[in-house]
Design brief:
InterPro entries: DUF316 (IPR005514), Peptidase_S1_PA (IPR009003), Peptidase_S1_PA_chymotrypsin (IPR043504), Peptidase_S1A (IPR001314), Trypsin_dom (IPR001254)
CATH class: Mainly Beta
Largest sheet: 9 strands, antiparallel
GO molecular function, one term: serine-type endopeptidase activity
Number of strands: 16
CATH architecture: Beta Barrel
Oligomer: single chain
CATH topology: Thrombin, subunit H
Radius of gyration: 21 Å
Number of domains: 1
Order of helices and strands: EEEEEEHEEEEEEEEEEHH
Protein name: Peptidase S1 domain-containing protein
Pfam family, one: DUF316
Strand order of the largest sheet: 4-5-8-9-3-2-1-6-7
Distance between the termini: 69 Å
Low-confidence stretches: 8-21, 309-315
Length: 332
């Protein structure tokens, strides 16, 4: 699959705790994802890497290893290893129900209403969720749990000013310590007194060496106070390389957020480390030399948000209220 990715001018504001909101067209690869579970919804962030694929964190679908097993976010049940495909785990469709929204700077209808934005969102569902390495016997520590997920969408998205993928890091840029990196997320910001959650923000950081393994990358904010928070999990860390916006990391975890936290690192998964498995499941692979030219016009177009569908129950409620009002008017 050819990557149709390119440069984006950084004209946006800041992200995450003590961050500033940004526009969707300034980071058209950043998408919110809401994973359904028994007690409600788990909100995460993801990155668009093709017209059919996003990359996010594994723990948005399957929790960290505990009590001898990995367990579904959906209902807390232990995963069924019959769904292993080699070292990778394929999440069953009934355990991967989620909404993935595009061309938006708010994570859901409620967040959009809070900042007076349209609530008709462009939405896709997961068709396939792959968790690399989850079935491997080499899993060792809390920080080395292959916290990355590759999600295939049920339908392609059309690229536009507000919907566009980033490139994949095939060259190990994440090992360039002290390089600038920008992390995106729709998560919680306790420093924002008006709208604390669900708005796209970014964090300006630089890469640090971690001692947790080759697949784990650390980052540290320039101002020492920005920090990834709840809902930012799975967000992409990007940098500009060779004129292209390139996905270098996937946000895994950080400290619990509050306005007094300072000098805390964020932990990420290295996209380069997982580039082979990303190639395997998405078809986005490293090409040596110049890639062949092809017409990509068909990948671009205008996505139209579907209007809200009134449920059968809502129709019945409306009909009852309408008839009640009619009876009142006629009785006068």
């Amino acid at each position: 699959m050819q990557q149709v990715c390119g440069p984006y001018k950084k004209v946006m504001r800041n992200k995450v705790m003590f961050g500033t909101k940004t526009e969707s067209k300034e980071a058209p690869w950043a998408v919110p994802i809401a994973v359904y579970r028994g007690e409600g919804v788990m909100h995460c962030t993801a990155t668009l890497v093709s017209s059919r694929h996003i990359i996010t964190a594994r723990h948005c679908f399957v929790r960290d290893f505990e009590r001898g097993a990995f367990r579904y976010v959906f209902n807390g049940e232990a995963i069924n290893r019959a769904n292993c495909r080699g070292e990778d785990y394929i999440v069953p469709p009934e355990r991967s129900e989620a909404d993935i929204h595009f061309a938006t700077r708010c994570r859901d209808e409620e967040a959009c209403e809070n900042i007076n934005l349209p609530t008709n969102l462009i939405t896709r569902k997961p068709a396939l969720v792959v968790l690399p390495g989850l079935c491997s016997k080499n899993f060792v520590t809390y920080y080395n749990q292959d916290d990355i997920a590759i999600v295939e969408l049920d339908k392609d998205v059309l690229f536009s000013e507000k919907i566009h993928p980033v490139c994949i890091d095939f060259d190990g840029y994440s090992s360039n310590y002290f390089e600038n990196i920008t992390i995106y997320g729709f998560g919680f910001d306790p420093s924002d007194k008006r709208v604390q959650t669900g708005i796209l923000r970014y964090e300006s950081s630089y890469i640090l060496k971690c001692e947790f393994g080759m697949n784990v990358i650390c980052s540290y904010s320039f101002d020492h106070v920005q920090l990834a928070c709840r809902g930012d999990s799975g967000g992409g860390g990007v940098m500009e390389r060779n004129g292209r916006t390139t996905l270098v990391t996937v946000l895994s975890r950080g400290e619990a957020c509050n306005v007094r936290k300072k000098d805390i690192v964020d932990l990420h998964m290295s996209v380069w480390y997982y580039s082979r498995v990303i190639c395997k499941y998405t078809g986005i692979c490293k090409i040596d030399g110049d890639s062949p030219k092809r017409d990509v016009k068909q990948l671009y177009g205008q996505e139209v948000a579907k209007p809200k569908v009134i449920s059968f129950g809502q129709k019945i409620s409306f009909w009852i209220v309408f008839n009640f009002l009619c009876v009142l008017l006629l009785s006068k």
